[in-house]
Amino acid sequence: MGIGYVVGVLGGALLAHAAYATIQYRAVLKITEEEFSRPPVDVMMQLLLGLALCMWAGVSVPAKFVSVLPHSEENRIVSLPANMDFMIFNHRGRALPSDADLKLKI
Amino acid sequence: MAATTAISTATAAAEEARLLRLEEQAEHGGGGAWEYLSLARRLRARRPAPVLRLGLSLLNDASARSRLASEQWTLYEQVAVAAMDCQRVDVAKDCIGVLSKQFPGSTRVGRLEALLFEAKGDWAEAERAYALILENNPFDQIAHKRKIAIAKAQGDMSVAVDYLNKYLELFMADHDAWRELAEIYVSLQMYKQAAFCYEELILAQPTIPLYHLAYAEVLYTLGGLENLQTAKKYYASTIQLTGGKNTRALFGVCLCSAAISQLTKGRNKEEDSSELQSLAAEALLKDYKQRSPSKEALIAGMLKNMKLS
Q: Which UniProt keywords apply (chain A) (predicted)?
């Protein structure tokens, strides 16, 4: 968890630095009056590295992944809910005496 | 979408285990009563006795009740229904009294009052109450469903089927109603109609293995070569969806293939899926060996009789 956060912050900082470097580069290009085609290689490397670090942090920082497969052990469906909208009261509950001192105190 | 509805309408193994654990814990005074009641409500589990006991202990405790704030009204409703289910009409009446004082003129409380008439067996009065609700809102699904339930409670299954069919013409996407209709048809031994309902359910929620299983069972009961072959396929899909943990489906595959081989005796032209039944038999044997070794010999003998292992 801790390492994930540090890596995420590092990745974010790298991305920010890449943006800053690109702006600087364009400023230099403006002075030398050259056409901007693409950022320099070291900025590209920073971008890729920052992306990879951010992705790793994004996957590792949140808690464990929950399985989405319907046949996985956690999602295995074992029972349907009681159909409460259609419930009827003709059952053995009538014959089973329930605790008489269960009372709502108002 | 399908997956989320499946999760919200059916209970996964882990959640059911959690519900039972919380119940055990709360019943022995280990706390967690509110979590238990919330989970029971979310899973729509019908466990009236513990809900009544734990819910009342929360409601009678003024500090616990004030901690729940506005959630307490849901709890009053839950406890009222549980009390009716336990035939404690007096407790239900008290809960509904509190609710109707808090929310005068509410339809939801009106439905609870009608439900109380049902619990007392006062059918005419309950019908009148639902008719009043339906007059104000003709599309009140719960009131429609309760009218069906009243017919069912009086043992008048043909009227209940009639009402349900009419209801399903209006609300076709209501799978609870389809399920109820399927179960009523099965209880009336009208398997063809039940099979239609289960087809509808499988279309609506294809990830719930229990519908596949129920459909397969209905088809197996209907009999006939074609139905048996379809039933076997649905048993197989149940096995796939449950990861082979459903004993009933494993037995189903074995029984289906035994019945099919008996029907096609003599003209044994295609033994296409012979691997399926032998694998199912193997899985059954392994399961029994692990969980109930004393019955393993019985199962082995039965499978041998069916010429499966």
A: Endoplasmic reticulum, Membrane, Transmembrane, Transmembrane helix
Q: Which residue of B has its CA nearest to A95?
A: B87
The tens digit of pLDDT for each residue in B167-185 reads 999 999 998 999 999 999 9
Residues of chain B contacting residue A84, judged by C-beta atoms under 8 Å apart = 44, 46, 81
A33 touches chain B (CB under 8 A): no
Q: What is the dihedral of CA B92, B97, B102, B104, to 10 degrees?
A: 110
- Average pLDDT over chain A reads 85
Contact list in A for residue B16 (CB cut-off 8 A) is 78-79
Spatial separation of the C-alpha atoms in residues A25 and A19, rounded to whole Å: 10
Rounded Cα–Cα distance for residues B186 and B168 (Å): 18
Spell out which residues of chain B touch residue A77, defining contact as CB-CB under 8 Å.
6, 10-13, 207-210, 241-242
**Chain B: residue nearest A77 by CA?**
B12
Q: Check pLDDT > 60 for residue A94.
A: yes
Q: Which residues of A touch B45 (CB under 8 A)?
A: 81-82
Inspect the interface and report whether the beta carbons of A85 and B43 lie closer than 8 Å.
no
Query: Among candidates A18, A95, A91, which has minimal Cα distance to A53?
Result: A18
- Measured CA to CA, the distance from residue B43 to residue B37 in angstroms comes to 10
CB A68 within 8 A of CB A75: yes
In this predicted model, what pLDDT tens digit does every residue of B19-44 receive, in sequence order?
A: 989 998 988 877 888 999 999 998 88
Query: Does the domain at residues B193-262+273-309 carry the CATH identifier 1.20.58?
Result: no
Structure confidence by residue, pLDDT tens digits, B256-303: 998 988 888 766 655 555 788 889 999 999 999 999 889 888 988 888
